Amino acid sequence: MEIRTTSHFDKNLAKKIKKNSRLKNKIKNQISILQNNLHHPSLKLHKLKGKRIDEYSFWIEDNLRITCLFVDDVILFTDIITHDEY
């Protein structure tokens, strides 16, 4: 599956990495797993509710998640937030 990102995601990602440079490798690893196996247990992939009902979320570390949409053969990353923020 192809990965695409929103400008909102890109801005938030840059901020998170600037605060914590070790995140870059963790994020790359989880994205690689996502592309190869959506059902891998380390992702903790799940559908969201409420305002983000059309989105999914997967785990990066601790309380950090990436939210995304699945559109045809594209995974669109929409945000990188803590669990409390969604």
Give the helices and strands, then pairings.
Blueprint (H helix, E strand, L loop, with lengths): L1 E4 L1 H13 L3 H14 L9 E2 L8 E6 L2 E8 L2 E9 L4
What labels describe this entry?
YaeB-like fold; alpha+beta; 86 residues; 34% strand; 5-stranded mixed beta sheet
Q: What share of the residues lie within helices? A: 25-40%
The major sheet is characterized as: 5 strands, mixed
How many domains? Answer: 1
Under the CATH scheme, the architecture is 2-Layer Sandwich
CATH superfamily: RelE-like
- Please identify the top-level CATH class: Alpha Beta
What percent strand? 25-35%
Total number of helices: 2
- Roughly how many Å is the radius of gyration? 12 Å
SSE order:
EHHEEEE
Shape: globular
Poorly predicted ranges: none
Mean pLDDT: 95
Termini distance? Answer: 25 Å
Give the tally of β-strands.
Answer: 5
Give the neighbour order of strands across the main sheet.
1-5-4-3-2
Helix/strand class:
alpha+beta
* CATH fold-type name: YaeB-like fold
